[in-house]
Amino acid sequence: MNRRTFLAAAILAALVTGGGPNLVSALRAADVPAAKDDIVLEPARIVVSPPPQEIPRTKRQGVPGIERTAKGRLWAIYGREVESSRTFQVVKTSADDGKSWSEVKLMILPRAGTRAMSATLWIDPRGRMWIFWGQSAGMNDAHFGVWAMTTDDPDAENPKWSEPRRLGDGILLNKPTVLANGDWLLPASVWKADNSLRVLASTDQGRTFALRGTANVPDPATRGPDEPMIVERKDGSLWMLVRVQGIAETVSHDGGKTWTPVQRIAVKHCTARFFVRRLQSGSLLLVKHGPLDKRVPREKLTAYVSDDDGKTWSGGFVFEDREDVTYPDGVQGTDGIIRIIYDHKRTPDGEILMAAFTEEDVRAGRDVSGKVRLRVEVSRLIGSAGTK
Fold it and tell me: How many distinct structural domains can be found in the chain?
């Protein structure tokens, strides 16, 4: 019995017996620190425009996400103290296409005993911007939780935000997918569990979410963060790509209710996040480490395109050729430019960087558009003091 259930039962019993000292004792129980299973159900503290000195110091940051508004404002989110039990998130914005970035506009600070982790940004079809993040009691509490908050005015430098709400179990690191029928699908994961892949769905434009279906990574040895992404293919089927020791796939033919067995695809990859998304042209974009036919370390972030829904890939634009570069997330703006955010040397540099290029550059494998920008700095650690 958790704390809430116990407290409700105690108050009911006290009322039945006439209140008095029993009721007082029950009410005092409300002041007892929450149990572990209650803490994780409480939202993280949301701090708007925190003074720099109030942002906890860190020696490690990374796992970024990016979004761009229709008017061109960029938003970035990334974790500090990543891969620890104290992970929290910060949000920055740019009004000049990344040439300069604001101070932290928002801090998602978890309560004691929990962490706020694996965040992403997404602008929905109505123009609202969502911040998604995961919460866990400790490193892994076996169910996690997808949390979200929104703003109706993402073009504003200091928008107003909704109250955080919990959408369901799991971690949502990658952006939702909107289906042709208008449904929203959130590809979440309860790490290292049976049927860890969980598809949360909304049929009412985000007012409510429900679990639509699950898929299972069959080999426990390859289960991990999963970090699934969903693409709706041109034949109406759903293609989910999953991080394992490489890249795996599963397919749904009924809108995400049931999924085929999870199995590896031919494209080689290290055990790390990759990125796939539908482009405005209708082609698919894949960002991964190194060549399609080689498993390399976390180096050489390379972009490819597919014109046949992932059966074959072409191009190969290496936009970051260093080692220790990880976790690409991206967005294609209304200007057609693809912007990819990623991290470099989470410790000690903690660099959050952005690359910008076009589909034509990807196909050519080099800068042919004249619009390529590489290693645009979003943030980096300055010694052990904090961030720039």
Answer: 2
User: What's the CATH code of the domain at 66?
Assistant: 2.120.10.10
In a 3-state reduction of DSSP, which class is residue 316? strand
User: What Å distances lie between residue 131 and 48, 83, 174, 268, CA to CA?
Assistant: 14, 19, 11, 31
DSSP state string for 130-169: EEEEEEEESS--SSB-EEEEEES-TTSSS---PPPEEEES
For residue range 128-172, list pLDDT tens digits in order: 999 999 999 999 999 999 999 999 999 999 999 999 999 999 999
Tokens found for residue 150 = 């929104």
Residues with Cβ within 8 Å of 226's Cβ and at least 6 positions away in sequence, in order, are 189, 191, 196, 197, 217, 242, 243, 244
Residue 164 to residues 31, 92, 108, 341, 383, Cα–Cα distance (Å): 23, 18, 10, 25, 33
Q: How far is CA 106 from CA 39, 62, 75, in A?
A: 21, 16, 11
Full-prediction pTM beyond 0.85?
Answer: yes
Do 86 and 164 share a structural domain? yes
Position 148 in a domain = yes
